[in-house]
Amino acid sequence: MLDQQISELASQAEARIAAARSAQELEPVRVEVLGRKGVLAQISKEMGKLAPEERARVGKLLNAAKQALEEALEAGKKRFEESALRDQLDAEWVDVTLPAPGPRPGSLHPVSQMQMEIEDLFVSLGFMVLDGPEVETEYHNFDALNIPPEHPARDAQDTFWLTGGHLLRTHTSPVQVRGMERFQPPLRMIAPGRVFRNESVDASHDHTFYQIEGMMIDRDVSVAHLLYFMKTLLSEVFRREVTVRLRPGFFPFVEPGFELDIQCLICGGTGCPVCKQSGWVELLPCGLVNPNVLRISGIDPEKWNGFAFGLGLTRLVMMRYGIDDIRLLQSGDLRFLEQF
Ligand code: FA5
User: Fold this and answer.
1) Rounded to the nearest whole angstrom, what is the distance from the C-alpha of residue 275 to the centroid of ligand 1?
2) Any idea what the Cα angle at residue 273 is, between residues 270 and 275, rounded to 5°?
């Protein structure tokens, strides 16, 4: 009687184990059949009623069934573990032979790129590249450029004043003075750099922007020399015809002085916020160096003369790339910067 019960139980349990579709489905079989209160435990209790030799025989059967079911459960568990591992490996598979995406390389700011191009051009024309401090003395920024205190020309460049006769340089022209102090003529130099003005910001004016100063001192330098270098500069930068106009300009450190304007390349000359609806953008003031400036820095104006210019580098970059708002250039916005 018990024999039959054991073998039926065993075959039912084996069938359930074989039919299970997950490890979770195996657990109730184990509890119901092999658990402390399971059916086999029940049968084992009933064996007490059997005669001793019968008990031994059924006991063997029971143990064999128990062991077989334990093994079947273990094998079933293993099967599910293996298939779970296989699924996981399939899901997490990576092709290690694929090339790695690599770091995203940065690029030079468009102002730096243009600055380097212009430096290369002027170096090829025999100019040296000089650097000067951004925190300047009033003497180098104004006095030595023939702009004494109270001179109205100081008002044209709203200044961030510091203490002790210092200021944030309003233009790169003080580097001319430093160049003349350090080197004897003949002298050819450019000085790119950042300048600061305490003025209200709009589409074409920033408080912080870049200029490139240029100066050539030699014997018998004329306006023709100046125009030759300015034309070479513009044709190298734009590599196409651009319309420019030259008009008189006043700067105490040059005489005669000129304003070289470029026809606005944002609107094509029809008028826009960048050119303040005028069709022209001030880009390249220049002139022949005022003899007073040479004299102040110890150069004899009877023997030497020269030209100087102060290129609005940030504006030049705007014209070259058609950037319609100067504020984009210092915004740090990667969507803008990644285009260069
Ligand atoms: C000067 O700064 C003179 N030092 C230039 C010079 C040098 C004249 C040597 C003669 C001889 P100006 O203030 O015009 O000049 O500025 C020069 C250029 O800088 C302008 O033509 C313009 O292109 C640019 N610029 C001036 N103000 C701003 C501003 N707020 N934002 C952006 N660019 C500006």
Assistant:
1) 15
2) 60
